Amino acid sequence: MFGAVSWLLTAGVRSLGASPTHSHSATFPPPGSTPVVDCPAAELKVVGIYDECALAVAAKTSACGVYGHMLDEVLRYTGDHQAFALEIQIEGTYDGPGTYDLPSWPHGLGTQDGVPKVATFATGVFWQSVSGVLKITSGNGRSGTMNATLQTSNGSTVVPDPMLNIIGQWSCR
Q1: In this structure, what DSSP letter does residue 3 have?
Q2: Domain ranges (residues) in the chain
Q3: Which helix (H) or strand (E) holds 46?
Q4: Rounded to two decimals, what is the model's pTM?
Q5: Which of 54, 97, 143, 153 has its CB 3.0 to 4.6 Å from that of 77, i.e. a possible disulfide?
């Protein structure tokens, strides 16, 4: 249920930008063609296909919750060029503050497979974590840090290139 609610909430980010085109593949600038940014501590660094700092959107409500051994967070961020919906999910193995590795996903969001997941939607493109580390620092599961590598995906199949890294502190507001 939480995965479905998260999907509904994050799918709304698409309406903030232009509608995605289904007849053409997305085109991305070559890696390294944009400068790497230096972000303030309160912002997420989004590097790779996008190179920008992303600040939590105060006017939007985040959906955050811990339910037994499940953590499900949907956070809203905006950068200079993109709006991001950031999903953090640990379904079935959440055990409070600590470090959680981010391996490739065996199943999609909302699946109680025990695999910690980070995903983002930006400009109609879905990105899912393939490696990295997620740290939960607060006792209520509402803040932490991440260093996640993501690749584009249709929700079940990962596309090898391009890559996106999301690095920094996050907080559910």
Answers
A1: H
A2: 2-14+46-171
A3: strand 44-48
A4: 0.76
A5: 54
